[in-house]
């Protein structure tokens, strides 16, 4: 499921300072496994297996903070929705601590530094500046802009964003053989088996000549990370696609052997 909150136009606010305050607010709320919502919904309440948030800013119209939630098996959207509202109301009321803000700032600066490495990333960066009507600045200057954001700025952004009415929606979700879709939507989901016995579901759409594949492992992911080893499954997911054969052993095999 997803929850959308409207944000003010960047052109009507304080430019980049307001933009990064809102971006940090979204990151604090649900910056993958580091966010407040992830901690509550995945680790404590066990009503979701994944929570993330993104901030989409616009210059000429309202932007949005989008919260995406993968529900745990057997959990209804209403239960997750109530938990999201509870956490956000508490966050708006009490504010966020300096620790969460500083962690979000470090993640934001790390993403910028990582983006300095490639021409494509730089192109996306400057395209984003054009999209929000900001004057051209260097990516290095963005690090200083993020550093300048205070806890008070993030808490003000949280109140400004998450006191607005939310819009909720539901994606198509499969639980075993049951298909749950949004009201009024007919979805023709079919199942089949591979030669080695792996069961999968597929949905045909002929508008574009594209094949999209998603693989999920049962009882795996950040929700099942051992205590004190949060981020282990994320590390494994980064290693697996780049596993290369070296001296007869893959990188994944070496990682497994080392524990």
Please tell me about this protein's structure.
By secondary structure, the chain is α+β, with helices and mostly antiparallel strands. It folds into 2 domains: 2-169, Cytochrome Bc1 Complex, Chain A, domain 1 (2-Layer Sandwich); 225-258, no CATH class. Helices cover 42% and strands 18% of the residues. It is built from 9 helices and 10 strands. The strands form 4 sheets. The chain has a 4-stranded antiparallel beta sheet with strand order 2-3-1-4. The chain has a two-stranded antiparallel sheet with strand order 5-6. Strands 7-8 form a two-stranded antiparallel sheet. Strand 2 and strand 3 form a beta hairpin. Helix 3 (77-94) packs across helix 7 (151-162). Mean pLDDT is 75; it is low at 172-185. It comes from Hevea brasiliensis (Para rubber tree). Residues 10-105 form the Peptidase M16 C-terminal domain. One of its GO terms (molecular function) is metal ion binding. It holds the Pfam family Peptidase_M16_C. InterPro entries: Metalloenz_LuxS/M16, Peptidase_M16_C.
What proportion strand? 15-25%
Taking all Cα atoms into account, the compactness measure Rg is 21 Å
CATH topology of the largest domain: Cytochrome Bc1 Complex, Chain A, domain 1
Distance between the termini: 34 Å
Q: In CATH terms, what is the architecture of the largest domain?
A: 2-Layer Sandwich
Low-confidence stretches: 172-185
Largest sheet at a glance?
4 strands, antiparallel
- The spatial strand order of the largest sheet comes to 2-3-1-4
- List the helices and strands in order: EHHEEHHHHHEEEEEHEEH
Mean pLDDT score: 75
Q: Which secondary-structure class do the elements indicate?
A: alpha+beta
CATH class of the largest domain: Alpha Beta
What's the CATH superfamily of the largest domain, by name?
Metalloenzyme, LuxS/M16 peptidase-like
Number of domains: 2
| Helical stretch tally | 9
Q: Please give the share of residues in helix.
A: 40-55%
Q: Estimate the global geometry from the Cα principal axes.
A: globular
Give the total of beta strands: 10
Organism: Hevea brasiliensis (Para rubber tree)
Pfam families: Peptidase_M16_C
Protein name: Peptidase M16 C-terminal domain-containing protein
Domain Peptidase M16 C-terminal: 10-105
């Amino acid at each position: 499921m997803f929850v959308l909150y409207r944000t003010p136009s960047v052109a009507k606010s304080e430019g980049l300072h307001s933009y990064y305050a809102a971006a940090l607010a979204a990151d604090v709320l649900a910056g993958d496994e580091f966010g407040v919502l992830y901690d509550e919904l995945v680790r404590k309440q066990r009503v979701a297996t994944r929570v993330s948030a993104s901030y989409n800013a616009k210059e000429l119209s309202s932007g949005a903070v989008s919260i995406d939630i993968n529900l745990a098996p057997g959990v209804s959207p209403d239960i997750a929705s109530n938990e999201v509202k509870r956490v956000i109301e508490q966050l708006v009321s009490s504010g966020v601590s300096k620790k969460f803000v500083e962690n979000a700032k470090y993640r934001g600066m790390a993403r910028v530094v990582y983006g300095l490495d490639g021409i494509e990333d730089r192109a996306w960066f400057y395209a984003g500046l054009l999209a929000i009507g900001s004057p051209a600045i260097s990516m290095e200057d963005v690090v200083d802009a993020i550093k300048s954001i205070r806890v008070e700025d993030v808490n003000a952004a949280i109140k400004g964003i998450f006191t607005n009415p939310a819009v909720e929606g539901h994606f198509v979700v499969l639980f075993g053989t049951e298909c749950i879709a949004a009201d009024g939507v007919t979805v023709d989901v079919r199942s089949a088996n591979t030669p080695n016995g792996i069961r999968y579901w597929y949905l045909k759409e002929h508008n574009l000549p594209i094949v999209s594949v998603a693989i999920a492992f049962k009882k795996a992911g950040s929700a099942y990370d051992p205590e004190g080893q949060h981020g282990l499954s994320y590390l494994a997911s980064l290693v697996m696609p780049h596993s290369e054969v070296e001296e007869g052993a893959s990188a994944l095999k070496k990682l497994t052997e080392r524990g």
